[in-house]
UniProtKB/TrEMBL annotation:
One of its GO terms (molecular function) is ATP hydrolysis activity. InterPro entries: AAA+_ATPase, ABC_transporter-like_ATP-bd, P-loop_NTPase. SMART domains: AAA (SM00382). PROSITE patterns: ABC_TRANSPORTER_2 (PS50893). Keywords: ATP-binding, Cell inner membrane, Cell membrane, Membrane, Nucleotide-binding. This is ABC transporter, ATPase subunit.
Length: 248
């Protein structure tokens, strides 16, 4: 019988005839609890290609966030490796990788000051010093989430949960990453705020069709709206639904 913990061994993440460039590839990636040594993520193979809109659903505690943080290089792997555009990621290149592959947490961290102060913050970091803050760009992104120019002047401490997530997303999207890793960005938001987040991410994707994302969601309806690849995580094992043609 096949090993259920190696679901991807017999099921490539995308068909072999797919000629789109691979952005992120996980090759036999495994994660364990450092204290209990329990397996958090069973050996996993996964490929995210240009234009992919992958959605991962599954029970709480099943390893979805573990997998996403692993792809973001926020936590070390215990086995396997992560490739970026077919190449291993050297330690010195990790900041550059994170510039291209952006991780969005469920509860964003906001700095004191205004929304604009928060949006300007990345440009003070060494990795982004070749870029400049562009108010027109962030205003356009804010408009995609149904927010006017006055949104940039609001105090971060006065933002609702949905507004804070919009501001956090704009802070990342203005930097034009190639990939978004979205860790349940709308889990604690009302339906209207969730739709605004979806619209904002959609506006980012529409600017460059090759951009790709992985979105963790507990909402089946949202998963259908935002994804063209449907994956499930159960007890640390990732599997992908087949299309009616028998391919992912």
């Amino acid at each position: 019988m096949p090993n259920p913990h190696q679901a991807f061994d017999a099921l490539p993440a995308t068909p072999s005839r797919d000629t789109r460039a691979a952005l992120i590839a996980a090759c036999g990636v495994e994660r364990r609890d450092p204290v209990r040594r329990a397996i958090l993520l069973h050996p996993t193979d996964f490929v995210l290609r240009e234009g992919d809109r992958a959605v991962i659903t599954g029970p709480s505690g099943s390893g979805k966030s573990v997998f996403l943080r692993t792809l973001a290089l926020l936590d070390p792997v215990d086995a396997g490796r992560i490739l970026w555009r077919g190449e291993p990621i050297a330690r010195a290149r990790v900041p550059t990788y994170r510039r291209q592959v952006a991780y969005i947490a469920q509860r964003p961290a906001m700095l004191d000051g205004s929304v604009e102060d928060n949006l300007r913050y990345p440009f003070s970091l060494k990795v982004y010093r070749d870029l400049r803050f562009d108010r027109a760009t962030v205003a356009r992104l804010a408009a995609a989430a149904s927010r006017g120019d006055d949104f940039l002047d609001k105090r971060a401490s006065e933002l609702s949960g949905g507004e804070a997530q919009i501001a956090a997303l704009i802070r990342v999207l203005q930097l034009a990453p190639d990939v978004l890793l979205l860790d349940e960005p709308t889990a604690s938001l009302d339906p209207d705020s969730a739709r605004e987040i979806e619209a904002l991410v959609g506006a980012w994707a529409a600017e460059a069709p090759a951009r790709a994302r992985i979105w963790i969601s507990h909402d089946p309806a949202q998963a259908r709206r935002v994804g063209n690849r449907q994956l499930t995580m159960v007890a640390g094992t990732l599997s992908e639904a087949l299309s009616h043609e028998g391919t992912p």
